[in-house]
Structure formats: structure tokens, C-alpha cells
Amino acid sequence: MIKPRCIENLNNPSRNSVLDVYRGIAIFTVVLFHFNLTFPYGYLGVDLFFVISGILVGGLLTRKYLNNENIHFFRFILQRGFKIWPSYFFFLLIGSIVARLLYAQTAPDQIIPLNDIWRYVFFYQNFTGEPFHWSFDHVWSLCVEEHFYILLPITLIVVASIFKNHRKLFLYLSISGYILLGITAKAIAYFFTDGKDTYSATYNRLDALAWGILLIVLIYEKRLPVKKWIKATMLGAGILLFTLSLYFDMYSGSDIYHKVVFQSLIPISFFLIIGATYHLNWRKLWPIRIMGYYSYNWYLWHVLFVIVTTGFLGNTPIGLCVLVLGSLAVAAIFTTLVEEPMLRLREKVIRPTKGLNCKPLQF
To answer: I want to staple 126 with a disulfide (CB 3.0 to 4.6 A). Which of 140, 285, 336, 363 is the partner?
Structure first.
């Protein structure tokens, strides 16, 4: 019996089922959030994605760094490009055509004009603000990740070149620097800019990504606690921190808390929760893992259909079900037609390259 590639990939022994589950949770909460704020704090799924990206992408690079292997910048960018660019640019092209068909008469602001496309093409939309095209503006998070893919290997290459005899120490210092920079950037943006935007700019999100890097380094270094009671304590602390952070955000009414403190605490709670559960076996949670598998294309496409869905079905449970199932089906189609073939091509193009770690990747 021929299994769908989704099932084959999810059964890969090198794949971490816990991260699949968290990605599934992250994308589902984001979809619920974009459906007329059905789940008001669902946008925190993006923070969860950032921490997971830090684990996966940071893990690939820091493992090479800790093993004293050379980090090849352009090979790494090419490797990430095969994963990110085809689905992304396909979405920009076909999504723009779909947007014109759906919204030309009713919501023309959903369409990206040709003279405004460049900030989306070259991944700097997250720094530009207006004009807004809501069906496409969620790609700000992909801009953050693209910048991260450039910053992290450069940082590791420079640190390894200058501090050859203290690589491990300066790796931890670099990660700590990213965390402090992300938190400090939010405070500076709040106190010293007119817009007080602490959300979408890349420097505001470095701490979330860095917490993921720190977690995977601790795992590689076997510094993560292994005793069950310590893991249970970590999990409890993460859930408690997450709960209290939400509570104060809902009831304090403090703008500075929301934009600086809250956005800095949430990634820490995810760091603790994922760290406490990382080595568990969640392979049987198939529905959530499948959502996680299709999460990239689902994230790209789901917002485009929100307005037309609510226009026909309203902000109703039926409308929500149609959006979730319909956009997930679209994500599965484009994952199969675009993402998976490009990942197979990546294996053929990059694998023969000398010195590149070709262990199957789940990102």
C-alpha cells in the first residue's frame, strides 16, 4: 500500500513528534485568530513558531558549530531557500490572482498593487507599515525568519573565527546577546519611537528565536534536566508563566506591559514548556501532527479566504469550519504540488556538495 508522503515524512525516525504537535497547535490558533478574532490570543502561535524555528534552524547550525565543522553560509541559504521560497513566491503570484478575482470589487485594498510588490518580494514588508493589504500582511513573520537565516550563520561564522579557543562560551554569550537585544529593542521602540511598534520588526523578535536556539543547544550539550520531577517543574513553571502573563495582559490595561513585558515573557514560557516535553513521544497525535506538517502553506494561504468566507457565511461556526477545512485542503494541495517536490529537488541538488550535512530535515 502506497502511503501519502505526509505520513511517510511524519514517520521518519529523525522527526521530533513533539515539535510537530506544537506546530499544529501554533497554526490552528493563528487560523482561529484571523477568523474575526475567534481566538483572541491566537496570534501567540506566531511566537511559538519563532521558538520552534530557533530550535530547528538554530539546531542545524549550532550542531555544526559545536562539532567544529565549517558553516557554509550560501549553502545554508540555498538549503533554506528550497524550503521557503517556492511556496512563498507561488503564494504571492497565484494568491494575487485569486485576490483580484475575489476582492477587486468588494475589497480592493486586499490586493497588492504592482508598485508595492517589492517589499513582499524582498522580505522587508515587516519594516514598512502602510499601505496595508491584510490578506498578505501576515507574511511579516516570514520576513523576520528570512532575516534570522542571514543573521545567525553570519554570527556563528564570525564568533568561530575570532574566538576559536572559547567557541562554546561565546556561543552562549551570542545567544544571550540576541535575547537581550530583542527585549531591549522592544523597550526602545516603545519609549523612543512615535509608532511604539514592538511587534513586527525583526529586532523585536530576536529573543523569541534565540530562546529556541538556547533550548536546542542545551539539548545537544545534555544540559537539559532529565529527571521527571524537574521536567514536571519546568512544565508547571512554563504553564504558570504563560497563564499569569495572559491574566495580567487581559486585566492590567497597561500598554507598556502588553508591548514590552508580555511579548518578552511569552517566548520564555514556550521555552520552558517545549523543553519539558521535548523528549516525549507524541507520534499518535496524528490529527495535530498532520496540521503541523501542512502548517507552512496553511499559514500562507488561510488569511486570503477569511473575508470571502465571512462574507458568505458570516462569523459563524459553519463559516469557521469551512475556512479551516477549506484552507487546510488548499495547504495540502500546494504542499504536495510545490513544497514537497522542491524538497526532493533540494536533496538532489545539495546532497552531492562536499561538507554539507545531509541528514533529513523536518523544516
So the answer is: 140
Kindly state the greatest CA–CA separation across the chain.
Answer: 64
Q: How far is CA 78 from CA 221, 336, 358, in A?
A: 28, 21, 13
257/249 Cα distance (integer angstroms)? 7
Are 24 and 291 in contact by the 8 Å Cβ rule? The answer is yes
- Residue type for 253, please? G
Domain parsing of the chain, residue ranges: 19-350
Distance CA(22)–CA(27), nearest Å, equals 9
Instruction: Look at the block and give the residue holding cell 521602540.
Output: 189
Buried b (16+ CB within 10 A) or exposed e, 68-96: eeebbeebbebbbbbbbebbbebbbeebb
What is the model's pLDDT at position 351?
Answer: 65
Backbone angles phi, psi at 131, to 5 degrees: -75, 150
Q: Which residue has the cell 527585549?
A: 183
* Torsional sign, CA 339, 343, 348, 349: positive
Q: Say how far residue 127 (Cα) sits from the centre of its chain.
A: 18
Taking the CA of residue 190 as centre, how many other CA atoms within 13 Å lie in the half-sphere pointing to its CB?
19
For the four alpha carbons of 218, 222, 223 and 224, in that order, the dihedral sign comes to: positive
CB atoms within 10 A of CB 3: 10
**Residue 184 grid cell:** 531591549
Residue 160 contacts residue 65 (beta carbons within 8 Å): yes
CA–CA separation, 347 and 329 (whole Å): 26
Residue 306: C-alpha distances to residues 38, 282, 299 (Å): 12, 31, 12
pLDDT means per 10 residues in the chain (363 residues)?
A: 73 92 98 92 98 94 91 93 97 96 93 95 93 95 96 95 90 97 97 92 97 96 86 97 97 95 98 96 96 98 95 94 97 97 91 44 42
